[in-house]
Specification:
Shape: elongated
Radius of gyration: 32 Å
CATH class of the largest domain: Alpha Beta
Number of helices: 14
Number of strands: 22
Number of domains: 3
Largest sheet: 10 strands, mixed
CATH topology of the largest domain: 2-enoyl-CoA Hydratase, Chain A, domain 1
Helix content: 25-40%
Structural class: alpha/beta
Length: 537
């Protein structure tokens, strides 16, 4: 049976070296550590520490914010190297790509290597982060792989992504593995469950079909990744196939106290890694683990799709109620607060640009002009709404500028996948907001407007100006009475009947100043009116 030779030179299986009871080192790894990690023989030596754990949530935009700020801090601190501690089941591919690029570029640009320590899990997007580090160290119970991209399908079920997305991610994994000299075929098999990998004569090779597997004889193949299963390697396999550089064995270490975790500083020998050769001789080694400030925690919280959608919902509903019942105040404050939080979160995550902000405020200005200064019966307001939603779309859906699509291969990158997911959130929120606006227009907004109209200032209610308070329903115009709008009904405003001014409300519709109205109902002491064509039925 013929084998399919890989497009890239297969990586030889490494020889186990430097076994001392605490760790195993891959071939030439100690020499590489000495080449890239330089410490001060007299001390002190600071080591950066970034941790991504499963209990803190999956990898997402919040994780990207945490890592980005950590790397910015380490540019100033200049540690001798950074430990990226992973124990994660994965998360968003686009966020993982940004983190991976940042880690790799930080290593190259600032000569500060990143050592990935897989302390149990580096699954899915976590595997991508590991591949982006110069060195990978694994604990004895570590596992890495199973990185097939998933999308949310019907009934919130997780389904495999399309071949377009899978193909792009497969190439991405292969490139990241190859960058630091690891086997790209193994990386691809973690993404593609249809890839068949076997070990033949000490080399990992890819086969076209299962019929090419050698099952007999002294040179029988060892099936590493069978067809139909994503590749996930345990610690021994990661070390054996040169994915991991160092394999650590369990042993007692010092306990990191709660106080040390709170301030983010503790002696390095409290980590298992610093009981292994090379690391154990670094004098006065001190871990400086990055701790997010409260502002960063707030931005990380706001970055989640659910919270972003709730902010958008609050912005839309607050704006509608405030414009419908001017003077009430609370809905407007809610809308403004939501808008500020959306802007702050977007700029903190570096997903906003000034064009989107300008579009948003231009749209809001056009809507206000249409409502208060230059009524166009909704035409100008519709244009303003398009500008407003366009700005919000750019703020709440990051990655638009990073979408890549290859026509020839039908590949779409992870940014495209993430944009599609966020677009679903955005659209669903708009649908909910639209439904709630209709309910507010029918039931709640008129009552809010009635309440706000009770709180007036100046001489608006001066009897000399023809105003009569709606105190006694018996003194009010009855159903069928006609008049004219003197203060636009949105839906609350003022009307005049027989030269007397009354507070009134429409049935949720906008009725402009100067239009004829007819009383259609009495709601307590408030007049409910509608447009009048001039003829009584």
């Amino acid at each position: 049976m013929d084998t399919h030779e890989p497009s890239l030179t297969p990586v030889e299986l490494s020889e186990t070296a430097n076994a001392n009871g605490t760790a195993l080192f891959g071939k030439d790894v100690l020499d590489k550590l000495k080449q890239y990690i330089h410490f001060n023989a007299d001390g002190p030596n600071t080591i950066g520490h970034i941790i991504i754990e499963d209990h803190s949530g999956s990898i997402n935009q919040s994780t990207w914010l945490y890592v980005k700020n950590a790397l910015e801090a380490y540019k100033k601190i200049k540690p001798i190297f950074i430990i990226l501690e992973l124990n994660t089941p994965g998360g968003e591919v686009y966020a993982a790509q940004k983190i991976s690029d940042a880690l790799k570029n930080f290593d190259i640009q600032y000569d500060i290597p990143v050592v990935c320590f897989i302390n149990n899990w580096a699954i899915s997007a976590g595997a991508m982060l590991a591949y982006s580090c110069r060195f990978i160290v694994v604990a004895k119970d570590a596992s890495m792989g199973a990185a097939e991209p998933l999308i949310v399908g019907e009934n919130s079920q997780m389904l495999p992504a399309s071949e377009k997305i899978n193909s792009a991610l497969r190439a991405d994994f292969a490139n990241r593995a190859n960058f630091f000299g690891r086997n790209p075929l193994i990386a691809e098999a973690m993404v593609d469950k249809d890839l068949i990998l076997v070990v033949r004569n000490g080399k990992v090779i890819k086969l076209d079909s299962e019929s090419q597997i050698r099952t007999e004889g002294p040179a029988a193949d060892i099936v590493l990744s069978p067809k139909g299963k994503l590749l996930t390697l345990n610690a021994d396999q990661l070390f054996k196939y040169d994915v991991a550089d160092v394999l650590l064995f369990p042993q007692k270490t010092g306990v990191i106290t709660d106080g040390e975790r709170d301030i983010g500083k503790w002696p390095a020998n409290k980590l298992l890694l610093f009981h292994a050769p090379f690391f154990d001789v670094i004098p006065n080694a001190m871990i400086e683990s990055y701790q997010m400030e409260w502002k960063e925690r707030l931005f990380a919280f706001l970055a989640s799709p659910l919270v972003s959608s709730l902010l958008l919902l609050g912005l839309i509903l607050g704006t509608y109620v405030e414009l419908s019942s001017p003077g009430f105040g609370v809905p407007g404050a809610l809308a403004l607060s939501c808008l500020i939080l959306i802007l702050l979160s977007s700029f903190a995550l570096e997903i906003a640009n000034w064009l989107e902000v300008v579009l948003l405020f231009i749209g809001l200005a056009i809507i206000i002009i249409d409502l208060f200064l230059l009524p166009t019966f909704g035409l100008l307001g519709f244009v303003g709404l398009l500008f407003f939603l366009g700005g919000l779309f750019g703020l709440l859906i990051p990655g638009l500028e990073s979408i890549e699509y290859e026509v020839g291969t039908n590949r779409i990158n992870a940014a495209g996948q993430m944009v599609l997911e966020r677009f679903v959130w955005f659209s669903f929120t708009l649908l909910i907001a639209g439904a709630l606006v209709l309910l507010l227009a029918r039931f709640l907004t008129p009552r809010l407007a009635a309440y706000s109209s009770l709180v007036l200032k100046g001489n608006e209610q001066d009897a000399s100006r023809g105003y009569i308070a709606n105190d006694d329903p018996r003194l009010l115009p009855q159903v069928g009475a006609t008049g004219e709008v003197v203060a636009t009904l949105r839906p609350a405003g003022k009307i005049t009947i027989n030269d007397v001014i009354y507070e009134a409300m429409s049935n949720g519709n906008l009725i402009e100043r100067g239009e004829k109205i007819i009383v259609v109902n009495l709601d307590g002491s408030f007049l409910i009116v509608d447009k009048w064509s001039g003829e009584k039925s």
